[in-house]
């Protein structure tokens, strides 16, 4: 699964206690050759470790061991290495399995518990910068789900949509003395009202920034007959069709997405500056972690590629070099940033990712506090 599939409902389901053992396996992966050759070996080793954990747990029956092993084997067989990103997460219990390929690295880990480990999924989604894209014309309206990594056509809310009948009748336009424009047709206006209504349903269920792509006449009409276009993050005046591919659309959106990200980063930094002036600001991993555990973080900002292995001592974090950490050493947290992000979100805060080096003066992570 991709990060945009992690809905609040699915997250609640993953965190719910299971009657049998819940196995979570995480590991870093590589996007291409030759580095990805090591991924299969690493996965084999982790699967073997998972089997040993199951065998050694006296609370797991032999039937449950066999069932979880079978689900784990099915998951491994189902992995598509061509879609590999920066980490792999496998979740398995006695009845099902899930495969998540994430654009954010995760440490090697095998966890056997009564619910799944979700911190890496939550952090990956927080950093994905999800958005919607609507490609619209008089003949077609298509919805796309966008992340930092990709665009994917979506079939929800009735999309893709097409008008119920031929919109454009040039002979009728000629008889009425009007210019032969499909966008002045009442049929087209009606179709665009349907598009706006369907889009409102999608945005209500899953609010995200909206990018609109279409000819100027189409974008103008959509704004004229509905509400969604008025609040769009960006409008790209470029025609699309039902045959437009994800790579083609991504290319057209590239400049708009870069501008949007820069504006979003600037807004976050402004918010942190305001918090600093109001003395409700903290920076650095140890200080932000302490505030997050106390539920005081309103918004945490993290540089996109910031991750740190730490040793927890007396409720403080000490950065360590992974090469200096002994296997199974107590107090080591390999994914403390992901854990911190999950904690902030669980306490009703907000987590945002900003460009690398934009928080260099604050230890790569900073927060605006509630109190």
Describe the overall structure.
By secondary structure, the protein is an alpha+beta fold. Helix content is 38%, strand content 21%. Strands 7-6-5-8-9 form a five-stranded mixed sheet. A hairpin with a 2-residue loop joins strand 12 and strand 13. The chain is globular. About 3% of the residues have low confidence.
Q: What is the molecular shape?
A: globular
Q: What's the number of extended β-strand segments?
A: 16
Q: Name the structural class.
A: alpha+beta
Oligomer: single chain
The strand line-up of the biggest sheet is 7-6-5-8-9
- In whole angstroms, how far apart are the ends? 37 Å
Number of helices: 10
Helix content: 25-40%
What's the gyration radius in Å? 24 Å
- SSE sequence, one letter per element: HEHHEEEHEEEHHEHEHEHEEEEHEE
Could you write a compact summary of the structure shown?
The protein has 371 residues and is an alpha+beta fold. 38% of the residues lie in helices and 21% in strands.
């Amino acid at each position: 699964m991709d990060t945009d599939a992690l809905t609040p409902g699915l997250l609640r389901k993953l965190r719910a206690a299971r009657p049998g053992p819940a196995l979570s396996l995480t590991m870093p992966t590589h996007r291409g050759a030759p580095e990805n050759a090591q991924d299969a070996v690493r996965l084999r080793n982790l699967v073997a470790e998972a089997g040993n954990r199951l065998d050694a747990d006296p609370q797991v029956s032999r039937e449950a061991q066999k069932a979880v092993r079978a689900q784990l084997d099915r998951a491994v067989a189902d992995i598509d290495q061509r879609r590999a990103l920066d980490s792999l997460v496998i979740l398995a219990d006695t009845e099902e399995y899930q495969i998540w390929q994430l654009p954010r690295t995760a440490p090697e880990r095998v966890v056997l518990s009564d619910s799944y480990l979700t911190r890496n999924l939550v952090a990956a989604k927080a950093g994905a910068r999800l958005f919607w894209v609507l490609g619209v014309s008089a003949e077609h309206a298509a919805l796309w789900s966008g992340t930092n990594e990709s665009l994917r056509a979506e079939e929800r809310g009735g999309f893709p949509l097409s008008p119920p009948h031929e919109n454009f009748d040039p002979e009728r336009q000629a008889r009425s003395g009007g210019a032969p424009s499909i966008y002045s047709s009442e049929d087209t206006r009606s179709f665009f009202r349907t598009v706006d209504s369907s889009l409102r349903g999608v945005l209500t269920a899953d609010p995200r920034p909206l990018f609109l792509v279409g000819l100027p006449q189409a974008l103008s009409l959509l704004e004229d007959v509905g509400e969604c276009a008025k609040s769009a993050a960006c409008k790209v005046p470029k025609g699309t069709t039902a045959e437009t591919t994800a790579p083609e659309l991504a290319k057209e959106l590239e400049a708009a997405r870069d501008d949007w990200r820069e504006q979003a980063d600037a807004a976050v930094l402004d918010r942190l500056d305001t918090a600093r002036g109001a003395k409700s600001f903290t920076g650095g991993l140890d200080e932000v972690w302490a505030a997050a555990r106390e539920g005081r973080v309103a918004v945490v900002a993290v540089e996109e590629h910031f991750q740190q292995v730490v040793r927890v001592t007396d409720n403080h974090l000490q950065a360590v070099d992974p090469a200096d950490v002994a296997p199974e050493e107590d107090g080591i947290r390999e994914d403390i940033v992901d854990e911190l992000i999950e904690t902030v979100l669980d306490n009703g805060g907000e987590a945002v990712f900003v460009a690398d080096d934009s928080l260099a003066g604050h230890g790569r992570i900073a927060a605006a506090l509630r109190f």
